[in-house]
Amino acid sequence: MRQTNELFIAEVGAKRNVAALDKIYTANARILPPGAPMIEGREQIKGFWASAMAALDVKSATLATVQAEPAGDGVVEIGSAVITTNAGQSMDVKYVVHWKQEDGQWKWHTDIWNMNG
Predict the structure, then answer these.
(1) pLDDT tens-digit profile of 65-80?
(2) What is the CATH number of the domain that holds 59?
(3) Rounded CA gap, 36 and 25, in Å?
(4) N or C: which end of the chain has fewer CB within 10 A?
């Protein structure tokens, strides 16, 4: 799981490399972004992240696991994140990710987050 989160930080957060999301989300993953409809499927998720990162002018993102525990055939992670823009603004975020294994790798299967305040 740590490798997947580090991949998100290094490739998606720092480089805006949405192609790396193939290694982060399961093929039929769902995201539940704040103030927006649920989005299903890796290609649609990549489109969402590309647009969101451009709109926010994201410079970096960090993830920190607060708690992770087994749940059936997966794992549920509660965490916190900080998104930093190129203008120097920081946004504190909390998230929950339901992890599943796909092709021998732990990936995000359901991802929901919202801003702190």
Answers:
(1) 999 999 999 999 999 9
(2) 3.10.450.50
(3) 19
(4) C
Q: Name the β-bridge partners of 106.
A: 101
- How many domains are contained in the chain? 1
Strands 105-115 and 74-85, by their bridges, are unpaired
Which pLDDT tens digit goes with each residue over 80-93?
Answer: 999 999 999 999 99
Torsion of CA 41, 47, 52, 58, to 10 degrees: 110
Q: Which domain holds residue 32?
A: 2-115
Burial class (CB in 10 A: 0-12, 13-18, 19+), 32: middle
Each as own residue / partner, the long-range contacts of residues 15-18 (CB below 8 Å, 24 or more positions apart, any chain) are: 16/50, 16/53, 16/54, 16/58, 18/46, 18/49, 18/50, 18/53
Is 95 within 8 Å of 67 (Cβ atoms)? no
The helix/strand/coil state of 41 is coil
